[in-house]
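Internal tracking record. Fields below are filled automatically when a chain is submitted to the structure queue. Please do not edit lines marked as system-generated. If the sequence contains nonstandard residues, flag them in the REMARKS field before resubmitting.
Queue: standard
Priority: normal
Entity type: single polypeptide chain
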Amino acid sequence: MIRWFGYRRFFLAGGLVLFAAFCLCREALSGPLDFDLADAHVKITSGFTGDDLVIFGSRGQDGDVVVVLEGPERHSVVRRKESVFGAWVNKSSLRFENTPSYYDYALSVEHEEDILSADFRAMKRVGLSAPMFLPDKDRYDGKTTKMFQEALLRNQQNSGLYRLKPQKVSFLGERLFRADFHLPSNVPSGTYKVRALLVRDGEVVSEQVKELRVGLTGFSAGVYKFAREHSVLYGLLCVGIACFAGWLSNTLVQRS
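SYSTEM-GENERATED OUTPUT FOLLOWS
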């Protein structure tokens, strides 16, 4: 019995040593920043009213954490209306290249100016103050171009596709962190980029990028795919269904 207890203590101590070595190796192999998505695919169905996106991560070094969520890049055109003989018409316009269709971000501090300079914010596209809207041509002066940029930002915010203020990165202890985002019901489909940055002393120490898939599923996805691949046949089917529905409703009214 005494010998059995001695072996038990020996194996217990050995197990604790191996577990500690495993934790140290894992800490050494892990980078200064790592994160993952709770769900890498947001499914848009016919009754989609929005969804919550949760991001968990860990930092291996001290520093502030920035998480950026960007939708697929698209081209956007901003038009300016002016009065011509008493009528408001689109007189001037400006086209912007590679603008994110959706943008949201989270910070471990209150303002991005507290951790990153203007040049770094522009390079890493952190914050809505960064010049992420670049025109395809220099058609106007700087003041007019800034007016179009502000109009594009305002339109995206009114549509709920750009947030008015950043989300909050909360820490679960010293290393683990969490960021919560809410995707609205009109969120665009496509492949999103989720970027996490570790910032220390005004410089980006580490950056990691992962993809998030947002798209239609089920019957809605089939209808959308069929409409894009067979647009003419889809239009004829819609006209046929509308005519049949009109004939059926007229027949039921006459019988009643």
